[in-house]
Specification:
Elements: H1 2-24, E1 41-49, H2 58-80, H3 85-97, E2 118-124, E3 130-136, H4 142-152, E4 157-159, H5 160-169, H6 183-194, E5 211-216, E6 222-228, E7 249-251, E8 256-262, H7 264-270, H8 272-283, H9 287-301, E9 306-312, E10 317-318, E11 325-332, E12 338-342
Parallel strand pairs: 3-4
Antiparallel strand pairs: 1-5, 1-11, 2-3, 2-6, 5-6, 7-8, 8-9, 9-10, 11-12
Length: 345
């Protein structure tokens, strides 16, 4: 009996040690050891892709870190005051959409026709209601219109002119296309046009800047949202994963809230955000295990690049990505905001 008990103890001890090693492993870029439980928390991203120190000026890096910190503090202020996860997600993404640094809202990239077409989605983990817009051209803050679709219509997704007609009916002001013009994104379009075979080359992951937020409020509710301008030189009304519930955005109080960034076609085909939730619900994986399985194994197996941010009902967070960098950060209750950019942070 003693021998059996000792053997069982040794087995449990070894399992515990392996779990600790996996949890703290530096092998998964952006991975974070489980932080919860927490009263509230939020995680943000500003896009994943070819982001390296050698291509980043000190001034530009400082600008990104400052804006991501502002966004985290904005979300914290909402949650500290007892605000909902949905309100925090919308407020944070509004701030990022208004910044020309990111490929969302003001800083959206250009299509092949020289226009700006924006996509966004939001989801409530408590009710699993969701709203999304795709291909809108005159909406300053697409995430806010996505929330209106969720709360003021019987639909989940509206696109193009129909979405903008709905926006007008809801009292939302439209902005001219000129509002979205930035010299940086215009030069990116010109460069892409000059590239031989540009129409078939490149990936959304290279056009980093999609923004997203996931949040847990003090009532234990989760929410997720994502907003993007898509791919530079995108054609034929292309729509990526950001407005697709279950691909770019997903939230379920039973499991987690997820926002994705990367090469959208692969995230749609892999149903990435929902898959992470399903891995937790049906396989019993932890948030970090599920996110790593999908982003580090299943997604690249088909050639997909990018990353996700996620938070579960206990305040555990994950930020895995398989690119060289991802603008990201998190803030937990009573904690100082943490911002990271590069793989080795």
């Amino acid at each position: 009996m003693v021998r059996k008990t000792t053997k069982r103890f040794q087995t449990l001890a070894i399992g515990w040690m392996l779990a600790v090693i996996v949890c703290l492993s530096p092998g998964i870029p952006g991975a974070v050891a489980q932080e919860g439980p927490a009263g509230y928390g939020l995680v943000i991203h500003g896009g994943a892709g070819t982001i390296s120190r050698k291509n980043m000026t000190p001034e530009r890096e400082a600008a990104y870190r400052a804006k991501l910190t502002d966004a985290l503090e904005k979300g914290q202020s909402v949650l500290t005051a007892g605000g909902s996860a949905l309100n925090a997600v919308e407020a944070v993404i509004n701030l990022l959409e208004d910044s020309p640094l990111f490929n969302a809202g003001k800083g959206a990239v250009f299509t092949a026709q020289g226009t700006n077409e924006l996509d966004a989605s939001i989801m409530d983990g408590r009710t699993r209601n969701a709203g999304a817009v795709a291909g809108v051209r005159h909406i300053r803050n697409p995430i806010s219109l996505a929330r209106l679709v969720m709360e003021k219509s019987p639909h989940v997704m509206l696109s193009g002119d129909g979405a903008e007609i709905f926006a007008g009916l809801q009292g939302m002001d439209l902005v001219p296309q000129s509002y979205f013009f930035t010299r940086r994104r215009w030069e990116s379009l010109r460069q892409r046009i000059r590239q031989e075979g540009a129409r078939q080359s490149g990936s959304a992951a290279e056009e980093h800047g999609t923004v997203g937020t996931v949040a847990l409020d003090r009532d234990g509710n989760l929410a997720a949202g994502t907003s993007t301008g898509g791919m530079t030189y995108k054609q034929y009304g292309r729509i990526g994963d950001s407005p697709v519930i279950g691909a770019g955005t997903y939230a379920n109080n039973k499991t987690c809230a997820v926002s994705a960034t990367g090469y959208g076609e692969y995230f749609i085909r892999n149903v990435v955000s929902y898959d992470i939730s399903a891995q937790m619900e049906y396989r019993g994986l932890s948030l970090r295990e599920a996110a790593a399985e999908v982003i580090m194994n299943k997604l690249p197996a088909l050639g997909g690049t990018g990353g996700v941010i996620a938070i579960d009902a206990n305040g555990n967070i994950a930020m895995p990505f398989n690119t060289s960098g991802m603008y990201r950060g998190y803030a937990l209750e009573n904690g100082t905001p943490v911002v990271k950019i590069y793989r080795d942070e």
